[in-house]
Amino acid sequence: MSEITLPINDNVLLFFALLFIILIAPVLSRQIKLPGIVGIIIAGVIVGPNGLNIIAMSSAIELLGAIGLLYIMLLAGLDINLLDFKRNKNQSLIFGILTFIIPQVVGTALFRLLGFSWSASVLIASMFASHTLVGYPIITKLGITRNRAVITTVGGTIFADTLALLVLAVVARSVNGGLDFNFWITLTILSAVYLFLVVYMLPILGRFFFRFVDDGIVQFHFVLGVAFLCSFLARAIGIEPIVGAFLAGIILNKMVPASSQLMNRVQFAGNSLFIPFFLLYIGMIVDVEILVKSPSSWIVMAIMLATNVITKLASSQITQKIFKFSKAEGWIIFGLSTTEAAATLAATLVGLRLGIIGDEILNGVVLMILVTCIIGPWIVEHFGRKIALETKFEKIENTRVPHILVPLSNPATSNNLLSIALAINEQTFSKISVLSVVTKQAQLDEEMEKANALLKGGTDYAISAGVNINPLKRIDINVANGIAHAALEENADLIIIGWNGKISAQERIFGSVLDHLLEQSPQAVLVSKLEKSIMSNSRIVALLPLSSINEPGFFATLNIIFGLSKSLNCPIHLSVEHESMVIVKSLLKESQFDVEINYQIASEDNDHFRHFSSLIKKDDFIIAFGARRKTISWIPSVDKIPQKIAAQFGDYNFIIAYPGISYEKT
Predict the structure, then answer these.
(1) C-alpha–C-alpha distance, residues 598 and 548, integer Å
(2) Is the previous residue joined to 7 through a cis bond, with omega within 30 degrees of 0?
(3) What letter does residue 213 receive in the DSSP assignment?
């Protein structure tokens, strides 16, 4: 039996120790009213090389810490609602400039007064100008990633950190005597090439990949591979890797819906392993002995900490006043932006290597990191809970919990159907039920086994996406009756059902099951033909006949489409006549969803379907409103829409949406 020595050098025991710390530290910290991530940081201080020396600062620990930091930025990019980000980009830009300029100017002036050189003063000030989103995992757990103040802070972080890291590069070049015209030209050209590759080429690669690969594990590897490649290329051209990871998250954002199985896997891996490793790493770099050995470090730390807190508080309060955020939102901005870690350490290590700062600054920086990483997350959790409670109250007050029923019959298409339900559920907080109908009485045992397998597969898929669903099994004389009766008994509001795209006899549209279901069910129905993963779609192109607006359930169904658009981060290109556009615009004001709609006006003299067809491009998700016979919205031209779409766009993802109805009396 091998002897156990400290620091731990056995790889198996080391990994156990890391997992044990990640397990127990948050539990203990919550007992003293501190956020769980603060507990992990403090645990890092205790077990690290400057504490009890249980775990050494090895290359493996540094690697895990670096991965965790990049993971935080990747998740920040993936979690942002791009429409909200676009609409708040000016707020992010202004906050980013404020949170960079105020600390940079104040810090430079202060340290010049303390006798530091210009290069050292500018470099130290850049440490205050940047920040790390250490508290972001708390935001994710509280479910407020789409709060305006959070979006503003995340966007502003990228602006501020990029400027701070540019200052770092300029100071380093100036000390080495290489700050010339060629430096600026090279940096500009390389940055332009990098942005072209990431912003324009990556979406093409991503959609191509998701179109042909539906294996969840391979998709997870693709997302991580892209993020770390973008981070490496950023470093290669002189930009900090965290910018590359965030850009990768932004680009992949449209392809990875928040309610998807893939997103759940990405979040689980980050929140359970990589991000805690990063927090542990932060604690391990703290040297507690300097508090005793170097009293001057207290003074330096106090000055640095005060400068950081005061300038970041000023930036957040000014931003709050300008954009009329609530008091809690103002404190959230401060809590997220006051924490220092990665960029600050990078600037410190560069300054040490160049010889323009000494150990007293290093010690002050390390202690500032520890203190800000404790107070920042505490502030974020305290005020984030208030925002989360207010948001939850609004949702309960303003929305009724709808019920989505998803009949399953084909294991090959079940997951795609459920992905639509999960995307809608993300915005509407619906209850989801999956249904399997058994009709063959003679082979009942065999059919029941198949039904159980279908329901288990659907349930497992939903659970892997972080959503619990209700499995239902029904025996009936035919499938249409079984679905209709189940929808009635379960009080379903929406039925999402698959279609193989085959055109039936002239007197029917879809075939016996779907046509009979449409005749029997007053609920809204989404008839879906999904050829590939919805993660490969970049836009929603929708056909809205004027007659559809007459249906009583039209507004509710339109809201479902809005929710799907918001969840997928896809803009809607809506083919409408002018009269329809006016009505939709007025309905949108009443909707709970803020979505991007581009209205494409069809001339009354032209074929509406031809106008709609001309809008469709590769990677579009097609949605058309249909109408049941004997309803007030039915007209012959609308009846032919499903066949036309199936014939012309059979290899696209598309949905024929039938609003809930009230039948005409005949």
Answers:
(1) 19
(2) yes
(3) -
Same topology between domain 399-530 and domain 532-666: yes
Q: Please tell me the predicted confidence (pLDDT) of residue 227.
A: 93
Q: 295-306 burial, b if ≥16 CB within 10 A, otherwise e?
A: eebeebbebbbe
The strand pairing partners of 528, in sequence order, are 498, 655
Quote the CA–CA distance of 497 and 185 in Å, as a whole number: 57
Distance CA 567, CA 421 (A): 11
> CA of 325: how far to CAs of 253, 290, 313, 317, 338, in Å?
26, 40, 14, 9, 18
> 199, 82 in Cβ contact below 8 A?
no
Number of residues assigned to the chain? 666
Residue 454's identity, in one-letter code, is L
- 656 forms bridges with which residues in the sheet? 527, 624
Please tell me the distance from the alpha carbon of residue 133 to that of residue 157, in angstroms, as a whole number.
Answer: 8
- Pair 394, 143: CB distance under 8 Å: no
Write down the domain spans for the chain.
68-396, 399-530, 532-666
- pTM of the predicted protein model: 0.72
Q: What CATH fold (topology level) applies to the domain 399-530?
A: Rossmann fold (3.40.50)
No. of helices (H) and no. of strands (E), the chain: 28, 10
Angle subtended at Cα 405 by Cα 403 and Cα 409, rounded to the nearest 5 degrees: 170
Taking the C-alpha atoms of residue 349 and residue 123, their distance in angstroms, rounded to an integer, is 11
Low-confidence ranges of the chain (pLDDT < 50): 393-399, 507, 663-666
Measuring CA to CA, which residue among 165, 146, 159, 107 is closest to residue 337?
159
CA-based torsion, 473, 479, 482, 483: positive or negative: positive
What contacts 315, CB < 8 A, 6 or more positions away? Answer: 95, 98, 99, 102, 103, 333, 337
* Burial tier of 261 (Cβ tally within 10 Å: 0-12, 13-18, 19+): buried
The end-to-end CA distance of the chain, in Å, is 88
Angle (CA) 215 217 222, round 5° = 95
The pLDDT of residue 664 is 42
Q: Specify the CATH number of the domain 532-666.
A: 3.40.50.620
CA distance 136 to 305: 21
Paired residues of 437 in beta bridges? 474
Cα gap 113→320, rounded to integer Å: 31
CA atoms within a 13 Å half-sphere pointing along the CA-CB vector of 413: 18
d(CA 263, CA 220): 8
CATH of range 68-396; options 3.90.420.10, 3.40.50.300, 3.40.50.2300, 1.20.1530.20: 1.20.1530.20
Q: What is the three-state SS of 413-440? A: HHHHHHHHHHHHHHHHCCEEEEEEEECC
